[in-house]
Design goal:
This protein has 151 residues and is mostly helical. It has one domain. It is built from six helices and three strands. A three-stranded parallel β-sheet has the order 1-2-3. Helix 3 links the parallel strand 1 and strand 2. Helix 5 packs antiparallel against helix 6. The longest helix has 26 residues. The N and C termini lie far apart (38 Å). 21% of the residues are buried.
Length: 151
């Protein structure tokens, strides 16, 4: 291996989450240490069928109607059944996956609007993207508009 190849391995080019949403049919949510990340929340708003670890800890939005097999596919916390779960989802076809994605968005999208209002109560939000609630709202609305067609 040459130095150029080694350099690429040391600094792999990432694919932004938004680009991944329309490139891949499935997303896997693997929690970090402690299970408090909000990536699952964003993935459930994406056009992808989400495979999520079944962990004992639950986040605030998981208690709002998320159901294994209805809004996402639960996999073992050690991911031991991940391959079997993906094979099963592929065998069932796209239509069941589309229904699951649509149901996940129905549950999570109203929560994103609550989150937006909490994050930015200003009725005239800053149009510049950033960490403002306006950005969160625009992103979720954009995802929702084309989500089902992409799966």
């Amino acid at each position: 291996m040459g130095n150029a190849t080694l350099a690429l391995l040391d600094e792999p080019q990432g694919i932004p989450l938004r680009s991944q949403m329309y490139r891949y049919r499935y997303a896997i949510n693997v929690e970090g240490h402690g299970g408090w990340a909000d990536r699952l929340y964003h993935l459930l708003l994406s056009p992808q069928l989400v495979f999520a670890q079944d962990l004992p800890m639950r986040t605030w939005y998981e208690q709002a109607g998320l159901q294994h097999g209805v809004t996402h596919i639960a996999v073992d916390s050690g991911l031991r059944n991940l391959t079997a779960s993906v094979r099963s989802a592929r065998a069932r076809g796209r239509e069941p996956a589309r229904r699951m994605v649509a149901r996940a968005q129905q549950v999570v999208l109203p929560l994103s609007l609550v989150r937006t209002q909490t994050a930015n109560p200003n009725p005239n939000p800053d149009p510049n993207p950033g960490s403002s609630g306006a950005h969160v709202h625009r992103w979720h609305t954009t995802v929702r508009a084309g989500a089902i067609a992409a799966l």
